[in-house]
Amino acid sequence: MEKLYVFGTGHAAVTRCYNTCFAIRDGEEYFMTDAGGGNRILAILDDMNVPLDGIHHIFVTHEHTDHILGIVWMVRMIGSRILAGKYSGDLHIYCHMELTETIRTLCSLTLQASLIKLFDSRIRLTPVSDGESLEILGHEVTFFNIHSSKAKQFGYTMVLSDGSRLTCAGDEPYNPLCRPYVEGSRYLLHEAFCLYGERERYRPYEKHHSTVKDACQLAQDLNIPNLILWHTEEDSQPRRQELYLAEGRQYYNGNLIVPEDETVLDL
């Protein structure tokens, strides 16, 4: 059975929790999605007993700081292990075409030349296109453009071992153009910037984000059995889970999950 390792659950500007990023574990290997905005990801991995040697596949959704800057630290740490002969195999980083040069440039500007030389040999940037499917950890993963109104962003849907699907919809509201990928999913990972009742305070729509109510109504309309909400504000902590569940259950009858940082969920 696969497990979902939740590393962070917050939006870009949080300080009391980490930016939203996660990994799907299958056996002793992890398919990681984003790495947050800094080196705090390294402490989280250590807290959750996730070894760098078990991470050979990372997907980067888009260029925003809270999703991409942690990748520099992942490259630094895994690259250092490669140079020390302590990492078997290659590190594969998947992203849309434009993002490959962004990642390469960020690393080139901030890391040692010895690490940069690993690109295209032991560290491989793999561009993915809209609708393209790849096999990752023995699972079919289909990437798709979420049609962001801001920076270009991709999500994906993964076929789990039981044949059901898990879909990562990125950090913006669902676009109906993505229906072929989202509909029929057993798990939907969706952003919820704040409670609908707090929309005047946080102004999620100005930032092109959803509220808990919006995400739950979507999952209800699409008959999604399991909805995971994150990429949220942090001011409601430590009551965030309680408050989000209370609002969400008014609009969604399925299994609603509002995880905290450093949570492991069975899939």
Short structural summary:
The protein has helices at residues 40-47, 65-83, 97-110, 113-116, 179-182, 199-202, 212-221, 240-248, and strands at residues 3-8, 21-26, 29-33, 55-59, 91-96, 123-128, 133-136, 139-145, 154-159, 165-168, 187-191, 226-230, 255-257, 263-266. With 267 residues, it is of the alpha/beta class.
Q: Could you give a short account of the major beta sheet?
A: 7 strands, mixed
Terminal CA distance reads 7 Å
Low-confidence stretches: none
Give the strand order of the largest sheet, numbering strands 1, 2, ... along the chain. 6-5-4-3-2-1-14
CATH topology: Metallo-beta-lactamase, Chain A
Class by alpha and beta content: alpha/beta
Share of helix, binned = 25-40%
Number of helices: 8
